[in-house]
Design brief:
Distance between the termini: 44 Å
Low-confidence stretches: 2-11, 20-48, 66-99
Order of helices and strands: EHHHHHEEHHEEHEEEEEHEEEEEEHHHHH
Number of helices: 14
Mean pLDDT: 78
Shape: globular
Strand content: 15-25%
């Protein structure tokens, strides 16, 4: 892993890959203690500046320590020829761009199709991404207190941080000192705000590492935290809970008149979360009750969805948080509850203080993660070209494939499409889905 330091109900490619892996689990339900949004805001506003400075100083100290450790690893690797990543404390320098054949080809294609290309921006992006030597390298932006894959950071606009951090307070699972440590990130089109003028959703991804003596205790804490988060965010002045995914069906059942296949996640409506149960009918025609605790057997795909309002912008959007949960045993062993630690090629983390948690967990990402991630994206491209046509999704996934496989001129051309006025229709379609879900 390398850290460089600088300046929906729809499944993502990572989620599709995760659905193919082995799953495991255990858990407990919990009662809500509904918090006032205004109280939380007042608390934040009352926080002394001294505390903020102390936290920033601590983050800087932590990152320097990580850099020192990584430098030692680099020296060792140089002696053993083992490949390692690097942590750099400042933003990667950008070489002076110059037009070349790639830019000419992009401009020619754009002119033929009537697409506006910002030549200077395209040159800057091609120059910057060419300087990224390793897709797994990570950049830390000290000024804005964020970090992420060096490639992902090139597409994120810090100007939107206040907006995304506000929503992040709604969606995030809280840390519990000494027990639960987390790292919250933006993912999907929300993490590409520099180029995606009309993103579909506000998608979040959170690494949740739980330190307990046993796996069973870990899952109980997860179930407790998820239910409390759902109950605390059922409805507020600027948000409304839509669904929670917790648990996995291991048999064919019928639910609300619809057949549910084995391996499907258990989806909970707000009323069902409050009740802690819902009804199903088994293949044999026997009705039975599924309780929240039943999800502990196999938590599977853990995810929240809300509809959130942004009054200053006059907008509504779907906000989701996909959890990647790991159990840390007393001996330091890290075990993902769903069988796989997700890669981080399309994430922008919203708090640099979570670098140590991130660094600890991504060391266990499978060495074939990039190859599998690209294969999953290519599978989705085929899906949205052939089976369920959606050319907006095709363009977005193609862009991610191109930028991760070194086909930068193709990626540079596609990224110019995402701010075209017609792409607003993509956002409108997503909003229709969100409103439809909120009406249920």
């Amino acid at each position: 892993m390398a850290v460089r330091r600088s300046t929906s109900n729809k499944k993502s490619a990572t989620q599709i890959a995760r659905s193919k892996k082995t799953k495991n689990t255990a858990t407990r339900s919990t009662r809500p203690a509904k918090k006032s949004l205004s109280t939380a805001r007042n608390k934040k506003n009352a926080a002394p500046a001294r505390g903020a400075r102390a936290r920033r100083a601590k983050t800087t100290e932590t990152l320097r320590a990580i850099s020192a450790e990584q430098n030692a690893a680099l020296e060792q690797a140089a002696q053993t020829s083992a490949p390692v990543d690097n942590i750099v404390a400042e933003a990667p320098a950008r070489a002076t761009p110059s037009p070349d054949a790639d830019i000419k080809r992009i401009l020619d294609s754009a002119n033929r199709l009537g697409v506006e290309v910002k030549e200077h921006d395209a040159i800057q992006w091609l120059t910057a991404i060419a300087a990224v030597q390793n897709q797994s390298s990570v950049t830390v932006d000290i000024q804005n207190d964020i970090f992420g894959s060096a490639i992902a950071m090139l597409d994120f606009a810090p100007e939107d941080l206040d907006h995304f951090r506000r929503i992040g307070k709604i969606v995030r699972i809280a840390d519990q000192p000494g027990v639960v440590e987390t790292a919250l990130a933006l993912s999907g089109s929300a993490a590409q705000s520099r180029i995606q003028k009309y993103p579909g959703d506000a998608d979040y991804f959170q690494r949740v590492n739980i330190k307990t003596a046993t796996r069973e205790e870990c899952v109980r804490i997860l179930a407790d935290a998820m239910r409390q988060k759902a109950l605390d965010t059922l409805r507020g002045s600027d948000h409304q809970l839509l669904t929670v995914k917790f648990g996995t069906f291991h048999e064919l059942v019928t639910r609300e008149g619809k057949e549910v296949k084995p391996g499907s996640p258990m989806t909970w409506s707000p009323d069902q979360v409050v009740a802690g149960e819902f009804k199903i009918t088994s293949a044999g025609g026997v009705e039975r009750t599924v309780r929240w605790e039943d999800g502990m057997t196999d938590p599977g795909w853990c995810k929240f969805d809300w509809v959130v309002a942004d009054p200053p912008r006059g907008q509504l959007a779907n906000a989701s948080n996909l959890l990647d949960v790991t159990w840390e045993a007393p001996d330091g062993t890290i075990t993902p509850l769903d069988g796989m630690i997700d890669p981080y090629f399309q994430e922008v983390y919203l708090d640099a203080a979570s670098v140590p948690v991130f660094s600890k967990l991504v060391k266990h990402v499978d060495t074939n993660a990039l190859k599998e991630y690209i294969a999953a994206l290519e599978g989705e491209i085929y899906k949205y070209l052939v089976r369920h046509p959606n050319y907006g999704k095709v363009a977005k996934r193609s862009y991610n494939v191109f930028r991760l496989t070194g086909r930068f001129p193709e990626a540079a051309y596609l990224r110019e499409l995402f701010d075209e006025p017609t792409t607003a229709l993509y956002q409108v379609w997503s909003l229709f889905d969100t409103l439809s879900a909120a009406e249920r």
